[in-house]
Give the backbone structure.
Amino acid sequence: MSTAAGQAGTPAERGARDDVLVRARGLQVHFPVSSKGLRRRRTGAVRAVDGVDLDIRRGETLGLVGESGCGKSTLGNALLRLVEPTAGRVEFDGTDVTALSAKALRALRRRAVMVFQDPYASLDPRTTVGQTVAEPLQVHSLHRGTEARAARVAELLELVGLDPSVASRYPHEFSGGQRQRVGIARALAGEPDFVVCDEAIASLDVSVQAQVLNLLRDLQQRLGLTYLFVSHDLAAVRHVSDRIAVMYLGRVVEVGDAADVSARPQHPYAQALLSAVPLPDPAAERRRERIVLSGDVPSATRVPSGCRFRTRCPRAFSPCPDVDPALQEVEPAHTAACHLHGVVGVPVAAGEHTGA
Ligand code: SF4
């Protein structure tokens, strides 16, 4: 699945590109807002994803973290083209997925999949676990024939730590953790390369969360998977991720190695999020200074001008209302979008000020 665009550039640029499985550039997902009544007209847009640049490297786990409603799940959906982008580009293995035909999109659905948050809601209560796991095999015409398909279902159930004999049982007979294992088995049926785990442990008990995280890590090593791990839980994200991307109001505001972002967060929003994560050492926990942000997250229909975080930022200063900061390198392989690291960004055009 390569394109002419995927072959362009110098050998060094091609090498760096080959290391990247999923790439987003200028990605936007805006949902129209209309007036009520008979003569509905468009009055604005929810800017759920609003200009995201992001690379996800082969074999890594990229943690995507931010408060509820910041656009994380919409971004995960847009990368898989489960929602249509309003603008921008997503490349999967060098191919522009925003321009795929229906047939090519079916092939993408096999290679790039989603594990959902709620394992009960995502499983059909009237369908046995075996039928659920076999569904992608039918859709993609894999392991044809009753015996071959049953053997593959048994293999997948074993892969996620379930006894193959459970194939004839129904979702209500399973615990939350077991149901999530079924969801993972179904996601892996088509032998994907890329898995978006969208709040995949959020609805599980804490003790079960650790088991599912360990399973995901084990599967990644065995199958060479690439993960986007979407979560509001920064402690879990730190635990599983190679790199972390922090998202605020539709935009990625910081990206770097998990250890670097955890030890030296550069964006004031990332600093506030990290200051709220409990520390395992009781003495360090007592010394920890928590940064409490004022106000609520602004509406995604009225994104503030300049830096979108400025209405809550404890360190906002003169350029922040006027210049939209671009992601820039603040240390090797660590980028942040904040004027505290030098005023580089996009000036706001006259009349473009919105919000506070
Ligand atoms: Fe705060 Fe300004 Fe940095 Fe935005 S650009 S995070 S408002 S200091």
In short: The radius of gyration is 22 Å. Residues 29 and 86 are 5 Å apart (CA to CA). DSSP finds twelve helices and 14 strands in the chain.
